Amino acid sequence: MPTKALLPLALFAALSPAPAVAQGALETVVSAFRADAETGDALVDLRFLNGASTPQAVALPDRIQAELEAGPSGNGPKRSVWLRRAADTPPYATAAPGGFVRARYRLPKESGGAETAIRLAIPAWHTPTIALSARPAPPTALAQADAAGPPAASAPSAPDLPAPPPGDPRHGNAFLGNLSAYESIYAAYGPGTNSDARIQISFKYQLFGSRAGGDGPESWRDGLHFAYTQRMFWDLGADSSPFRNIDYRPELLYITPSATLGNRITLSGQMALRHESNGRDGAQSRSINSLTVAPMAALPLAGGTRLTIAPRLSLYVGDKSDNPDIVRYRGNGGLFLEIGRDDGLRLSTTSRYNFASGKGALDAHLSYPLTRLLGGGPDVYLFAQSFVGYGENLLDYNRRDTRFRLGIALVR
């Protein structure tokens, strides 16, 4: 477990915490600049060129800080602006060896997007200052139709689209794109205890994702999510192999937009209203409600490695009669640390500590993509999980345990 000195140090480090692009051998080029006829914003096209012999992961933040000068020769005042990732650009991509990834960002008209000529640089991605002239926006479909005249009377109608495959959940589910992974999804096993198997599933759902998916103005509602995590402890050594305990954690989650600063620091944050329960009654009933705040920061290290730091503060609210002394074992402070490569080994740790009681816990996950070992699928991660401290699950919130398990993860 971390010492008493480690947590304050890490909390301080988080206040000055990485690039959203795994640069490695990537080169970033600003390739185009044109006006959007509908919104008046400017659309800035970027290319991430991969000169390496291996695929390179590219993570594109919601916002990126840029330096802008109006006018083709930089005769206007220099100012800092924010580029916003366009809806048709995904947050993650992979550049093939010798290939590139194209991304599009919006420069709002009030920030300079209405200019016809600019000089632009993105310090976090080390792009040189480049002079750009806005290309004319492509004609709208209506203007194209007017120019072409009325359609011929004998024009054939468009063919019917093929029917979707039977049982395809994407058919008729317009909001399926709002669903995404939240915390790790894994199954791990370590014999010799009454909770030798540990399984976790987790997801989040963007409540206003269909609105946020457009290129309209940003809204605070874009960050609202419903999230759910379920952790199961399976006693495989007992008769009938029962689940010894299951923890349920629904939460209302708010995620701020990610932002990459000029010094290659990526910042974001989360705030969650959580309910945790093990669904039992009587003496084994456990439940707790909390409000959790977690600022997050990431910074690049050598060789494409990235370090993520997220201090967490939890305030317990509502009825604690099922476990009135739980704060003694959990504390109000915690820290998430993660270090590794997107395409390689990754270590993630979550700790919590109560300085008054000296009690806490450390949960560590080590993962590696199996495809790197086998040269192909299955697309899972080799996974090792270790826990030491109090309260691996709600039922045992006041019991100290040490566990080690091995397994696989779908999401790490």
SSE layout and pairings?
Layout: H1 6-14, E1 26-35, E2 42-50, E3 56-59, E4 63-70, E5 78-85, E6 92-95, E7 100-107, E8 117-121, E9 130-133, H2 141-148, E10 179-181, E11 185-189, E12 197-206, H3 209-212, E13 224-234, E14 243-255, E15 259-260, E16 266-277, E17 287-300, E18 306-317, H4 326-330, E19 333-340, E20 346-354, E21 359-369, H5 370-374, E22 381-390, E23 400-411
Parallel strand pairs: 4-15
Antiparallel strand pairs: 1-2, 2-7, 3-6, 4-5, 4-8, 5-7, 8-9, 10-12, 11-12, 11-23, 12-13, 13-14, 14-16, 15-16, 16-17, 17-18, 18-19, 19-20, 20-21, 21-22, 22-23
Report the C-alpha radius of gyration, rounded. 25 Å
Tally of domains: 2
Shape: elongated
CATH class of the largest domain: Mainly Beta
- CATH superfamily of the largest domain, called what? Phospholipase A1
CATH architecture of the largest domain: Beta Barrel
Q: What is the averaged pLDDT score?
A: 83
| CATH topology heading of the largest domain | Outer membrane phospholipase (ompla), Chain C
Summarize the structure.
Helix content is 8%, strand content 47%. It has 412 residues and is mainly β.
